[in-house]
Task: structure prediction
Amino acid sequence: MRINVLGVGFDNVTLGEAVDRGMELLHSPGTHYVATPNPEIVEACRKNPAACRAVNGADLVLPDGIGVVKGAKMLGTPLKARVPGIEFAAGLMERMAAEGLSLYLLGARPGVAETAGKRLAEKYPGLKIAGARDGYFREDGPAAEEIRRSGADCAFVCLGAPKQELWMAKYGAATGARLLCGLGGSLDVFAGATERAPKFWCDHGLEWFYRLCKEPSRAGRMMKLPLFLVHVEKEKRQR
Ligand code: UDP
Result:
């Protein structure tokens, strides 16, 4: 059963369990998708029913962000762990490489997905990069068709939230991939265009603060975190 945090149901898994589940999905018939909501996305889902349906419709919903873990604890239904999407992706690629599976990279500014592909192929020998395309395409159909033609087993869909979740819900099956993962700005990190916070900050739940210092323009978006905690507090009292 999923843990409900303000209308979004989260799978109560550790990082290792999430990767195991991702591999199971990758080997199951049909198309599946993974969402990695943080408090900002939960807030977006409260206002946007279509986004909420797309996120909750995922086969695996991972708590990306310390705020979600705190929120679940405040509600008396703690989650085992925070599962950052980017760490889930790394675990998955390691296992995919060992099995010689193929990955398509969709999203980010022109050139970023290609660079990420080259770097990931070097980092995970055995992993096949089936193709890459930037996330600023005009028509969705041809992008999905390109993934299908590439024969990719898995696709990372990095278009920002909730665009990527809506895209996966609508076009996932058309891609023919068995697993799609919505991973926000991960391609920028894999390409070396954005740096992830050092381990200390991540381990202490301060990744958001590091990101804020590096990209002050995100301040507006980050104000969603205190708002999220206010809404959790309100929900707690109502329950
Ligand atoms: N993006 C995209 N197409 C769009 C809008 C955004 O490919 O139409 C990309 C953007 O270039 C960035 C990612 O989606 O690489 C979103 O990154 P953000 O940092 O907002 O995501 P987060 O990691 O915070 O969820």
About this structure: The CA atoms of residues 194 and 209 lie 15 Å apart. The longest strand covers residues 102-107.
